């Protein structure tokens, strides 16, 4: 077998695993890999301005394609800068691969320049972190990394490459190589039968679609089961888009923040919950005694250790979500168990029609719900949205509609500020081959915008167009609420305005070769969105619509941020 540079073999592995673009920043300790990418030419590369941005770009790429996104950096701070991106992917079950350069193997114990034990640092926020010690292992370690990232509950991996290992030759023949198989957990038939028995016996059952439904590409089966048995469906924040929210069986979102009033009310009236690929996160459940009271729970998850982690369900089933849904649908059809819509479905539709939140505000400054009303009406179901953390995540959960899986992307558990811009770049570049004209929209707060704003330069350099919609209240709204209502009775260090409006975000856009427009009145939102769409298409660069919203949003649109019991409006 002919010999070849080990990094050339690694590039061949990356291509065969479906990687068509890499996000990263070259440095001395990773140059052999960059040389191999240059010589091969089969993988595009975007040079980032910060390695955290690279990891979030890989994250956005992965959430859009379902594949494993790749970020690359050199030694030392490049790896430590990626940790937030790894944590975000780990928390949200997103398969990404971060590759770091490293000092020479014989220098690691001598505190050499930029030599750090990145493997130990990354282990708590990865499924696997490993340093390649022998060049002949490299392609096999990369194969295993992709298998681990995709297997079970997906997640991130990190591979550390000492510079001396990268420079070696190995025997490798890409023509006889292939990705390692990924096994999927199949449901145990008796447990499927028990689950169906419980569903059919319940008077007011709900299906709770978590992020696992989207990861398993099980949205069609979800709708099929719901329609067959006429069971209403709710979604967690990570499951948003698993069912079209205009579907007559969609029953909203339960939670203490990102929720609908009718969703909380529907949940409290249910007597059984079939949870599919859901973690039972604390912002969804609220107080467990309220959440669990009077309800039977069936928990289906591909990761065995997720079952019982928050509370013990009445029935736990370890299975790939799609395989479970297929099995229970087939069993229901065998039994002739199809049903027509009854009183429970009618009750859900009544709650959905009456327990709503107002959105048609004409106030100046603009109220946040009006912004989401305009977004829902202006953009179609094929638009891809990314959003992050803060009051606008809450408002998005409450007001923004999602019609398709992988079209509403949010950093849920980790909630890193600054995620939106690099994530939008990852989403848009992921669509370059399959949906080049797809609209990508990032919904961002004024504070989060500034965390990784330098990645706008990447979008400008590589002609990556998307629209940013900023809800600017000029202060840290969610932290202000926590200070004021969390028992601290304070209003300390949350204001980020130093003149009439603070940072001129439109000028920041212009400094990066992009465009922006500030909106002060609700009637100007729609024209600004129309302008942004045309400007992004014309320039092939990001465009900002900055909407100045009211500062006093202490109750998040008149709904208390307490627990799942509180779904009535504030008096």
What would your notes on this structure say?
The protein is of the alpha/beta class. It has 3 domains: 3-171, Rossmann fold (3-Layer(aba) Sandwich), CATH 3.40.50.970; 189-354, TPP-binding domain (Rossmann fold, 3-Layer(aba) Sandwich), CATH 3.40.50; 368-548, Thiamin diphosphate (ThDP)-binding fold, Pyr/PP domains (Rossmann fold), CATH 3.40.50.970. The chain is built from 23 helices and 19 strands. The strands form 4 sheets. A 6-stranded parallel beta sheet has the order 3-2-4-5-7-6, with helices on both faces. The longest helix is centred in the N-terminal third of the chain and has 15 residues, at 51-65. Residues 553-571 have low confidence and may be disordered. Its EC number is 4.1.1.47. Keywords: Ligase, Lyase, Thiamine pyrophosphate. One of its GO terms (biological process) is L-valine biosynthetic process.
What spatial order of strands do you see in the largest sheet? 3-2-4-5-7-6
Total helix count?
23
Helix content: 25-40%
Report the principal-axis shape: globular
Strand content: 15-25%
Q: Could you name the CATH homologous superfamily of the largest domain?
A: Thiamin diphosphate (ThDP)-binding fold, Pyr/PP domains
| CATH class annotation of the largest domain | Alpha Beta
Quickly give the structural class: alpha/beta
Low-confidence stretches: 553-571
CATH domain fold name of the largest domain: Rossmann fold
> Which sheet architecture does the biggest sheet show?
6 strands, parallel
Number of strands: 19
The number of distinct structural domains comes to 3
Chain-averaged pLDDT: 92
Oligomer: single chain
Assign the CATH architecture of the largest domain. Answer: 3-Layer(aba) Sandwich
Distance between the amino and carboxyl termini:
77 Å
- Radius of gyration, Cα only, in angstroms? 24 Å
